[in-house]
Every structure is written in C-alpha cells, then in structure tokens.
C-alpha cells in the first residue's frame, strides 16, 4: 500500500506523523511517500526519511496515498487532494461534528486518535497521553522562563533564596509530569484534582494534595469520572474548591492549570478575584486555553500581564518540543496502523474491534460519531 506523510499546514503545528524510525518499519512492506520538508520543523531532514526507505514527494502525492498519516485534521485544500475511500489517521477533533461531516463527505475512512479508549491494549496508541506528558513538562519550562526568580531554594554567600511554590490544577498525564518536572527543579508543589485516586499519585511524587471533601454521594459518584476522564462537578463542590484554591494561589509563585473535561469547555478554576490576590510577578500557565481556559483571563497564543500576574496562553506546548513530540506521536500512529493492516499487509478494518469502534469517525460516506 501507499502510505503518505504530508507536511502539516496548520499554523504553529511543528510535528510530523512519522519519523525515520517508524518509516523504516513500514518501508519493508509498503511504499512510503513523505512530502518534502514534512519533518523540517521537527529537525528531520528529507535525507533522513529517504535513508529510512521513504520516497520524497510533493503534497499532492503524499495526500493522494491509500493511507494518509497526519497530526492535525486536514484543511479543505488538503482534503480535496485525498482519494475517496482513503484511510486518514490523525488527531482529527472527534468532538467537531462539522469537521467529521466534511471528512465523511470526502469519502474518507477517518480515525481520530484522541478517541482511543483507555484500555491496556490501546496504551501504546494513546496520543493524548504521549502529547500531554510533553506539554506538562514544557509548561514548567515556560513557567520557569517567565518567572523572574529561582525555582530551587539556594543558600549563597549573598543570602538565601526561597524555593518557588508551584500549584498544579488538574493532575492527569500533563499535571503529573508537571509535578515531576517542577520537583526536579526544586520547587515546593501543591496540586488539586477531582478524581480521588489522584491524591495518592500526587503524594507519591512528593507534592501536597489539596483535599476538597465530598459532602454528598452525588459528588463522590461524579468525581469518579468516566473512562479515566473527569466529569463536570456540581457547582457547590466547585465553589468549595475555588475557596480553597484561592487561599493556596495567594501563596503560589507559579500556577499550572491542565484541567479538561472531554467534549466540554474547560472548567474555570482560577477566577479573576484569585488572580488579583496572587503575588506580583507570579505566573499562570493555562494549558486548557484552547478549550476556553481554566483561567478566564488567559488569552490564546499570548502571554499577558494582568493584575501583576503573567498569564501564558500557549496552546499545544508539545509543538515546542517538536522532535520528541513527533517521535512519540509517530510510534502511537505506527501501533495504530498494526491494528488495521493484516498479515498479508492489506487494509483490514475490523468494525467490531473496540479501538476501531471508538476511533473510526467517518467511513463509506457515513458519519459514525455525533
Ligand atoms: P485530562 O487531560 O482529560 O484532564 C486533566 C485533569 O484535569 C484530569 O486529571 C481531570 O480529572 C482534571 N480535572 C477536571 N476537572 C477538574 C476540576 N474541576 N478540578 C481539578 N481537576 C480537574 O486527563 P488525562 O491527563 O487525559 O488523564 C486522566 C486520567 O486517565 C489520568 O489518571 C491518567 O493516568 C489516566 N489514563 C489512563 C490510561 C489507561 O489506562 N490506558 C491512559 C491515559 C491516561
């Protein structure tokens, strides 16, 4: 089969859906068509792809392949160059109904990798985890860069410098990596999440968990989440959490927010009153900015100074670690491909497979996810 890897065209997107490592594994059985320059922003040259067995082609040939590997959903212009019946694999926004309708109308068999279920067999295909891990790391790096003081405690001849206090809101994959990274830099860390198992994870990394007690069975039940993801908490619990967080944020130097609820706007966790109460020169990095933000004052693609606090609204921080983000993403994609290519190296989409069912958003002209 012909497998195409086009260059990403979405502004700010630096990643690529295959690397020489994954191309090498595929090239023994398939014709791999990599668009010239596809890896340039991830420091992968055309020559490196070629040495791994790829043929370097133009956009039309890469997009016209039988299977197209992408990072982000194709633009109208890209879709127009794809074949009816082609397979498309990428982070395709499974909650964007219009986008899925367009892919269905183009006759694509489109797999949205964000929808991979959180089961053991699918762990190696979990793009949300591989990219969130990187974003959590980079969020701390960006915060440390913006913050005008040290992260670790220092005792010097010129006196002592206090360790930075870091508050992490939302401790999924990104938040856990944020804690681990801030810890390595010597910060003192507190964290909050709705899901009860998180407390133990936070403490095992040497951070303090901000406990917001559950006062009703309903709160306790909702906090369990579904499929490893959080659900929106009742207003009363959110109010109690906000009160506690307000007090902790007043003491914090850096706040990193990562809280998401699939298919919904991000929950507001650091309101304007809390920002006003924070120390001058403190920093908020809002990883949820693209989903509306955990802080209503964050602005997409900008670092703003509000009430004396720097608020960083960079979406897709994984794009700033393009080489490793591509390497991990490409391995996720390779593992997913194994699921839809049979022993004879032919396309075989098993519609009964749990991972296929969850990720196949359009097929044969039909929209499969609403
Ligand atoms: P996510 O990106 O959807 O959300 C980030 C975090 O925000 C979550 O921990 C969520 O509970 C939290 N959150 C939501 N509302 C909040 C609020 N009001 N206050 C505070 N926090 C709030 O989550 P994620 O990073 O994708 O991971 C969620 C969980 O799934 C993690 O425990 C992760 O380890 C687990 N996971 C399991 C598998 C698997 O079993 N295969 C794979 C990946 C992740």
From TrEMBL:
Cellular component GO terms held in the UniProt record: plasma membrane
UniProt superkingdom: Bacteria
GO molecular function: NADP binding; proton-translocating NAD(P)+ transhydrogenase activity
SUPFAM superfamilies linked: Formate/glycerate dehydrogenase catalytic domain-like, NAD(P)-binding Rossmann-fold domains
Enzyme class, first EC level, given as a word: translocase
Residue ranges of every copy of the Alanine dehydrogenase/pyridine nucleotide transhydrogenase NAD(H)-binding domain listed in the record: 144-313
NCBIfam families: PRK09424.1
Protein name (Swiss-Prot/TrEMBL): NAD(P) transhydrogenase subunit alpha part 1
Organism, as annotated: Pseudoduganella armeniaca
